[in-house]
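Bug report (template v2)

What were you trying to do?
Predict the complex of my protein with magnesium ion.

What happened?
Run completed; filing so the output is reviewed.

Input:
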Amino acid sequence: MLPTLVLVGRPNVGKSTLFNRLTKSRDALVADLPGLTRDRHYGRGIGASQPYLVVDTGGFEPNTDSGILKAMAVQTLLAIDEADVIIFIVDGRQGATPQDMEIANRLRRCKCPVLLAVNKTEGMNKAVVSAEFHELGLGDPLSISSAHGEGVKDIIDLALESFDVVEEEPELDQTGERVPKVAIVGRPNVGKSTLVNALLGEERVIAFDEPGTTRDSISIDLEKNGKHYTLIDTAGVRKRGRVLEAIEKFSVIKTIQSIEEANVVILVVDAQEGITEQDAHVAAYILEAGRALVVAINKWDGLKEEERDWV
Ligand SMILES: Nc1nc2c(ncn2[C@@H]2O[C@H](COP(=O)(O)OP(=O)(O)OP(=O)(O)O)[C@@H](O)[C@H]2O)c(=O)[nH]1
Ligand SMILES: [Mg+2]
């Protein structure tokens, strides 16, 4: 499992600037307009002694006007749920705002560590600027400059401190051959589980929860034509609260983690709905991660002849 670092903060504090620096991509849109990040939110982090996953939560529009969801969008709350470490970014030039306080209140309930990063502090007296952020109640504020890189390596090192670098041993079957890991990913309802069941068919299977993980992907042994495979199914059980569950079931973080674990990824798309932006982002990540990609176009049977040609 890659440690997952989630960048949280109100609009315009510099989340995407930090995301770009950590992933060295200029892809994520950085602009002087609040709420503009519409682009990529998930990337592999660099510059540390081990790989990690960075999630930029900007641009997820809150979709309700009451309660905590007003300050934080559902995707952000989901990401927080699945984070290993949260980096909460505030703007050192603007000082602590009521919205910062609201976000801090939510983050204080998180089980994972939260690091408080005071951004845009280049050329400023760091002790003075960061002092007022103690009131957020999230420990010592750490001064950084996303744009200039000051303090960035320190905060990442701190964030990853408690994670061991794990060299995974490839699993071998009885004959000593490597067992390929096949992840099956895709949006909810595209038919992932049905595909898994179809693959398994009459074969004897042993299903078990991946040991030592808090996330709920499931590994399944499959023997087909005398060869062994491990299927990784992300569609398994969810432990999340009922409210969130109802709004959004698709977890990109879980999907990415299973891609990282796998040698081959089957991306299941729905022929009747076509390829969504989400599908395209996931496909891009699979290729970037250097995994073999198989695109499975499911629900083919429901299409008319001319629709099949089009797909
Ligand atoms: N001076 C200074 N400006 C910065 C720094 N980091 C980011 N900025 C500027 O702050 C503005 C917002 O940066 P973004 O990275 O787009 O902010 P964001 O948090 O991703 O914003 P949303 O995605 O809209 O929530 C841009 O004009 C950046 O150039 C910094 O370290 N110092
Ligand atoms: Mg942004």
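What did the reviewer find?
The pocket of guanosine-5'-triphosphate (ligand 1) is lined by residues 9, 11-17, 30-32, 34-37, 58-59, 119-120, 122, 145-148 (CB under 6 Å). The domain at 4-160 is CATH 3.40.50.300 (Rossmann fold).
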